[in-house]
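Record type: monomer structure entry
Structure origin: computed from sequence
Chain ID: A
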Amino acid sequence: MAEDDVTIIGGGIVGLATAHALLRADPGKRITVLEKESAVGSHQTGRNSGVLHSGLYYPPGSAKARFARAGAEEMYRFCAEHGVPVRRLGKLVVATRAEQLPRLAELARRGAANGVRLSELDGSGIAEREPRVRGLRALLVPDAGITDFGAVSRVLADLLAERGVAVRRGTELVAARRDGDGLVLTTTTGEVRTRLAVNCAGLHSDTVAELAGTRPAARILPFRGEYYETTAAAHELVRALVYPVPDPAFPFLGVHFTRMIDGGLHVGPNAVPALAREGYDWRTWSGPHLRRLLGDPGLRSLAKRYWRTGAAEIARSAAKPLFVRAARELLPALRGADLVPAAAGVRAQAVRPDGTLVDDFLVHEDERWIHVLNAPSPAATASLRIGADIAERVTAHLG
């Protein structure tokens, strides 16, 4: 059986970008990508808002801050080169109440420290850019944009196939073992021998780490983000991207407005605990997943800490008028009749054993594995830069 130099578990945008970066560094490297679904980018990659983030939100010096800005510019170039639709729309982050102004000022400080181009707008400046949006002050981030990360993934997969990389769809990892100086990976379509494996399994990254014999530093808690889209008559209520000032205690950005690459307008998401790793609605649940949640002290601690926030998010999920009320803080002209349900996504959020949310990208390495244990937003934006970073780690391992 032929042996790979590197096998990547997960055909989302980070896994594919890693394979792409490895080939750019060494075109002769033997690489296989394993993807359990029939298509690449089926979960977090293809079910997000498509926003190219600029690095505004993240603590200076963090991996998110370092990778987002450079990664966004690299993604703009990649899309232009390969014919993937992309638009640099700009984004407003809007304070609607006086108590939000200090948080907006902190975002401005972070953005400046991270090298993000931005300017501050007063109420009249907001009205000039977004006539129907209400706010006291806002940050304008001109380099935020929109693309289709699912399309990016398909292009990456095609480029890899042209260069001889096997992207094995419909292939799920079920076991792994050491064998001399390498690994034997048992999958649903046969065994794979490899010198090194890279875990880019997203929603299942902690499970893959456990299969590899590693006790992960954090467990994945899936949060579902539910969206609405506006009717055609309401598409022009917002011109570009409009966000509220986020709650610094919670790693989500709040209900916002996204001008999609196809011209539609999406509203959302909320953030509710998913009842399965791939629980895209309340009807989809997993007994083993729920038992694990109930038995994990870190996740119980998280629930105890954030129960009020969680209850409010669940209420907005159950009652559309509450969701509309949250959106109307920014856009008073919005009506419930303007919104129809859109496809939901699930975000893989890593939680530490003490119940704290992992706020940055998290990578764990051992002798034969590199595990990407936390890669939430802005991972799609920064995926080409993240892939290059992982490729450098692979090169250090293999020599």
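Annotation 1: The two ends are 23 Å apart (CA to CA).
Annotation 2: The chain has a mean pLDDT of 94.
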